[in-house]
Design a protein that fits this description.
Elements (H helix, E strand, L loop, with lengths): L1 H25 L5 H22 L10 H10 L32 H25 L1
Helix pairs in contact: 1-2, 1-4, 2-3, 2-4
Length: 131
């Protein structure tokens, strides 16, 4: 029960980050770093929910590669999510660097992060049904 409650709360926060990224991406005055930060946060939280629901303790990290590797190590299919590593440059530990890439194609990452959250939501619903 405690795991499910925590996973549900973390998933709610991930959805808020994803929604914020989408809203901010529509604004002409918002920089890519801000949109990327919210996408990275949504991905991080979604991966942590996934690990949580697999019964794994996740590391205290913002590095998506560590979370994906842990999922891969326990036999979860993460191949299509490795592209999310490009969001690592927006993580908290790098927030004070200036993003100097030419352009950030946020739509692709929005879609992939959405897929992570949908997958986590399905796992959560399945566990809630069997509880």
């Amino acid at each position: 029960m405690r795991v499910l409650k925590h996973a549900r709360r973390l998933l709610t926060m991930a959805r808020k980050d994803l929604r914020s990224a989408h809203i901010l991406a529509q604004a002409e005055v918002v920089d890519d770093e801000i949109v990327g930060f919210h996408l990275q946060q949504a991905a991080e939280k979604g991966l942590k929910v996934w690990l949580d629901l697999c019964g794994e303790i996740y590391p205290r990290t913002h590095d998506l590669s560590l979370l994906l590797k842990k999922l891969e190590d326990i036999g979860q299919e993460v191949e299509s999510f490795w592209i999310l590593l490009e969001l690592n440059s927006f993580a908290v530990q790098f927030r004070y660097d200036i993003y100097d890439e030419e352009s950030f194609e946020w739509e692709e990452f929005y879609h992939i992060v959405s897929c992570v959250l949908i997958l986590a939501e399905k796992k959560l619903q399945k566990m809630e049904i069997t509880e």
